[in-house]
Amino acid sequence: MNTATKAAAGLERYRMYIGGEWTDAADGETFETTDPYTMQAWATLPRGRKVDAERAVQAADKAFNSGPWSAMKASARGLLLHRLADLIVRDADKLARIEVRDNGKLITEMRAQTGYLPEYFRYFGGLADKIEGAVLPIDKSDTFNYTTHEPLGVCVAITAWNSPLLLAVNKLAPGLAAGNTFVLKPSEYTSASALELAKLFEEAGFPPGVLNVVTGYGAEVGAPLVEHKKVAKIGFTGSEFGGQKIYEAAARDFKHVTLELGGKSANIVFADANLDDAVKGAISGIFAATGQTCVAGSRLLVQDSIYDEFVDRLVAFARSARMGDPSDRATQVGPVTTPPQYEKILEYIGIARNEGAQCRLGGNASTRPECGAGLFVEPTIFSEVRNDMRIAQEEVFGPVLSCIRFKDDDEAAAIANDSLYGLAAGVWTSDLRRALEFPKRLKVGMVWVNMYRAVSYMSPFGGYKRSGIGRENGMDAIREYLQTKSVWISTAKETPDPFVIR
Q1: How far apart are CA 295 and CA 425, in angstroms?
Q2: Is the pLDDT of residue 458 over 50?
Q3: Does the pLDDT value for residue 224 go beyond 50?
Q4: Residue 216 Rama label (left phi>0; alpha psi -120 to 50; beta)
Q5: Are β-strands 482-490 and 143-151 bridged in parallel, bridged antiparallel, or unpaired?
Q6: How would you list the strands of the sheet with 256-260, edge to edge?
Q7: What is the CATH number that goes with domain 4-261+467-485?
């Protein structure tokens, strides 16, 4: 089980996992992964190509159609998922440290995530043997009709760099419980933890080919996976542009897709809200995870009568945020994960200034000593933002908040819905009627009331409009990895007129 060894230069050397074997890329090429805090390379990974994608899909196809996985009872699949959950519990600290080193998110956040991952496998492992069809009271005489739900086949999971393991598990847990096999292609920026997870799959006893992990760049190994004729489903988390390309490619073969894409979520504060709680909710919505989250509450809508007071409170609170080493539990804001994203965030800050937004806090790259060599952007707050500004319409994916005024419920709903995206929203109010009724007016997939940025394996996650297609988590997720078959059995004594539809 030699997944990583020390390379000559002192870097960890990882290998791909295909068909139950640890292997280099077919041509032997590798690439480096960098710690976003130190900006030092710490590991090398195989640079997969089309031939590696082919090997992985063939292994997954063999496991689905003829391996022990294909003959395994649903309850046995569930037990394997439970066994995997126990191994993740054992290695949660190790997995969290690798995530922090690879993507720069806070150890407090990543340890919470790795500690929560086992619950996904336990939940869906429990559902594995509860996928039930139905006997239908059909309106045809002398006919018995029933339905079954069957796995799709080979699934490809392609994940983003901001929460690598969580995003992978969102796909693997329901898909495996349903009986599918997988090829996982993690982001080239954050591939190490996926290979560490594959190590636990092997230890848990999953048959060869059920999970395969290939690493490399999207155009070189991701695209061949998406385009492969034997792939039945793609689950993707990432940018709107990437989702669009995958959707177009999948359409050529009528593949199933789940797309979890971007957002420009409105976090809406009404005058009757508990302002202390709402300030914390606004901070959580945009500065947690350095704003690198699809559900970021990057548009803060505040009612006119409290706008100035609320923004003042918000600026004062955000000013105290501790930046620095993400492996230090006292740190509250870590580095930006990738150089291209760092440049993009700074570019959008410049766009906001040019559009006339008022920078109340931050607005620059951080040069604080505690930030070291990392790519840090100061927590940034813009006030007097109009919803037609680019800073309010386009996803920044960083610690940049746009504060927008509104007069009443109607205007708040209109501004919130005036977006190409529809992933999430927050509502802060002490009015019970508003808490129950206002979410109905929001064209988004998730609404938090008097809270923000909460997720559960038991509740569906996904968006409207350009925020994606399909749902992850909850019962909805396992349905995304199943197809329905209708079976008709005639009990008639003789076949009626063959020229007339029955």
Answers
A1: 8
A2: yes
A3: yes
A4: left
A5: antiparallel
A6: 21-23, 16-18, 211-213, 181-185, 154-158, 231-237, 256-260, 468-469
A7: 3.40.605.10
As a whole number of angstroms, the distance between CA 319 and CA 296 comes to 19
Contact criterion met (CB below 8 Å) for 72 and 180:
no
- At 238, phi and psi to the nearest 5? 170, -150
Q: CA dist 240 to 202, 254, 407, Å?
A: 33, 20, 31
Q: Are the C-beta atoms of residues 12 and 34 closer than 8 Å to each other? A: no
Name 138's Cβ contacts closer than 8 Å, sequence gap at least 6.
144, 145
Q: H or E stretch including 68?
A: helix 68-71
Query: How many other CB atoms are there within 10 angstroms of residue 296's CB atom?
Result: 31
How far apart, in whole angstroms, are the C-alpha atoms of residue 397 and residue 176?
31
CATH 3.40.605.10 maps onto the chain at: 4-261+467-485
The CATH 3.40.309.10 domain(s) of the chain lie at 266-449
Show which residues are catalytic.
Answer: 260
Residue-wise pLDDT for 37-76, tens only, equals 999 999 999 999 999 999 999 999 999 999 899 999 999 9
Cβ atoms within 10 Å, residue 151: 22
Of 384, 434, 471, 442, which is closest to residue 267 (Cα–Cα)? Answer: 442
Measuring CA to CA, which residue among 451, 472, 423 is closest to residue 120? 472
How are the residues of the chain apportioned to helix, strand and coil, as percentages rounded to the nearest 5?
A: 40, 25, 35
Is-contact 112 289, C-beta < 8 A?
no
Length of the chain equals 502
Q: Give residue-wise pLDDT tens across range 278-329.
A: 999 999 999 999 999 999 999 999 999 999 999 999 999 999 999 999 999 9
User: Tokens 């009872």 belong to which residue?
Assistant: 73
CATH number at 266-449: 3.40.309.10
CA distances for 464 relative to 29, 234, 425, 496, angstroms: 40, 18, 12, 48
Dig out the tokens for 295 from the structure: 């559900």
114 phi/psi in degrees, rounded to 5: -65, -30
d(CA 94, CA 90): 9
Provide the terminal-to-terminal Cα distance of the chain, rounded to the nearest Å: 58
